[in-house]
Amino acid sequence: MSSTNQRLQQMFDLLLTRFGAQHWWPAENTLEILVGTVLTQNTNWQNVEKAIANLKRKNLLSLTALHDLADEQLAQEIRSAGYLNVKTRRLKNLARFILERFQGDPERLQDTGTGTLRAELLSIKGIGPETADSILLYACAKPVFVVDAYTYRILQRHGLADEALTYDELQAFFMDHLPHEVPLFNEFHALIVKTGKEFCRKQPLCEQCPLRDWGPINFTAKD
DNA sequence: CACCAGGCAAGTA
DNA sequence: TACTTGCATGGT
Prior knowledge:
Blueprint: H1 3-19, H2 30-39, H3 45-57, H4 63-68, H5 71-77, H6 84-101, H7 114-122, H8 129-139, H9 149-157, H10 167-176, H11 182-199
This protein binds a DNA duplex (13 and 12 nucleotides) through residues 24, 36-38, 40-48, 50-51, 79-87, 90, 125-131, 134, 146, 148-150, 189-190, 192-193, 196-197, 201-202.
């Protein structure tokens, strides 16, 4: 057990005590998680909720509906989530993938090995590293750490991470120093997002941030 | 009015 | 490889 392991565990404990469990991913079923991961790309979750509620209300939250709906109509249904034309293509790409690769059953994603599935997801136009890892962790219950803009921002603001670290390096850092447990990775990412929303925006409220006295950890990509 | 949100792909040099 | 730009709505 290195001190880095302990420091990261302390950070998690601190945030969990301060904010409590975040209960991610908020959804009724696996498909709703998949749709949410695409719709929330660079987008406020409130706007995503409206789009998902809209799809539900019209009984369009199904793979066949997403796949068969005219582009123009699907774009209007998800309008509130922004980037409507881009996300229409991305949702259709993902729906087609599940239909063709998994016989239209989102639950079968879990039967594929993590590394293989991640590579397959990344081959879909519109699925990048964060979306792929969110699907792996929150839809497939694979022990994968999700990195996002808040992860960079918080660690940078506290002088913990070099801005030049790549997605894969930052992910590897967390995964090298924490036990690969799905509930831990689930909560940790959600708590980082929560902390970022509350204290790490443009006008930072660092004096109230629960990490204000947490102190530097001096880690690098290959610590 | 400006700024930002649980990214990604495509274009340029 | 390393930047830049487009995508778009709704809340603060």
